[in-house]
C-alpha cells in the first residue's frame, strides 16, 4: 500500500487575511495584528468554511482509512480539526511543520507599500533572482518550501493509506503541484497568478499507474461545498512582498499573486 491520492485543502479565511487585505487597500505600510504568523486564528467566516468543507470530505475519498496531516500553523490546523470533526471521519490529523506557510522574515507584517518604503534594496535583489528563488532576509524562497515538501512526501508516500489529506496554505498548494506534477519554475509562477487558491478549497492530485510519470490534477480549487451550504467563498491573494519583474505581472490583475497580502501569510 502507498499513497495514490492527495487531497490538498487551503485553510479557511483567517483574521490575518481580512486585516492584510484591508491594510493593502488602504495603503498602510504595516498590518496591525497582535499575533505571530503561527498563531493567527480563523475568522468567523473561516470557521464556517471549515465546517462546510467537512461535509464534502467523504465525497473526496477522505474516510476513516485516510491519512491526515495539518500545518502546525493555527489557521490550518484548526481548519483540519473542524473539517474532520464535521465529516464524521474518525481521524486525528498529524501536525507537520514541513507543511507550514512560507516564512517572509523581515518582510512579515508589511504590506507591499511597507516593503517599498522600508526595504527598497530588496526590490532590486528580488528582480535579479526572480520570485521563485528570492529569499527575504530571515525568510524562505519558494524553492525552500518545495524542498521541505519533498521531504514530507518521502514520509507520506509510505503511510499505510492510499488517500491522504493535508490542510495547508496557498503557496504550499501551488508547490505541491510543482513537486508532484513535475512543473518547472515558470509554470508554478504562472499558476500562482492565473489560478489563485480560494480559502477552504480542495485540490486533488492522483498518482499515475506508472510510478515514473508525474501525478495529475483531478480537481483544482473546488469550492462547490461552500456554495451548497451558503457559506461565502473568499479569495485573499494578490500581494507583492517585493515589487515583481514586469514579465511576472498579469496586467489583468492589480498585483502579482505570489501569496496573499499578509502579516500572517496565507
Radius of gyration from the alpha-carbon trace, in angstroms? 18 Å
How many extended strands?
Answer: 6
**How widely separated are the two ends?**
33 Å
Q: Say what the CATH topology is.
A: Rossmann fold
For the biggest sheet, the summary is:
6 strands, mixed
Annotation field: number of helices: 9
Return the string of H and E elements.
EHHEHEHHHEHHEEH
CATH homologous superfamily assignment:
Phosphoglycerate mutase-like
How would you name the oligomeric state of the polypeptide chains in this document? single chain
Q: How many domains, in number, for the residues?
A: 1
In terms of DSSP E residues, the strand content is: 5-15%
Return the CATH class: Alpha Beta
